[in-house]
């Protein structure tokens, strides 16, 4: 079947249903790449900030258990035994107990240090809380970042 060029049909080929051109597909790919380049870092920052809750919750819980121990025994515990261990529940932070040099322990400092994927969080690398419930945080370089981390 041969029809005139004005009707856009020649030898069974319909010119009206060509599909997408390579340029159109490439434009869509570029748009998706730009959106991904913007969204991915924002998402990673959000994930890092949400994992900080793991450290804050763990430190607050252990400080509460230390106060309970002090109330019962008139001394703080020198170890993390019975307080949840040396890692946060989600595993994003290692927990250490410091400042108990002699028995009876009258002071303590509990520190949560980022591990694994949470090491990408350069702003809040370590969190600490002491017996006065003073909360501190430090960046990767050691700068005080308490205001943004707690």
TrEMBL record:
It holds the Pfam family N_methyl. SUPFAM superfamilies: Pili subunits. The keyword Membrane applies. The chain crosses the membrane at residues 20-43. Keywords: Membrane, Transmembrane, Transmembrane helix. GO terms for biological process: type IV pilus assembly. It comes from Marinagarivorans cellulosilyticus. This is Type IV pilus assembly protein PilE. PANTHER family: GENERAL SECRETION PATHWAY PROTEIN G (PTHR30093), TYPE IV PILUS NON-CORE MINOR PILIN PILE (PTHR30093:SF47). InterPro entries: N_methyl_site (IPR012902), PilE-like (IPR031982), Pilin-like (IPR045584).
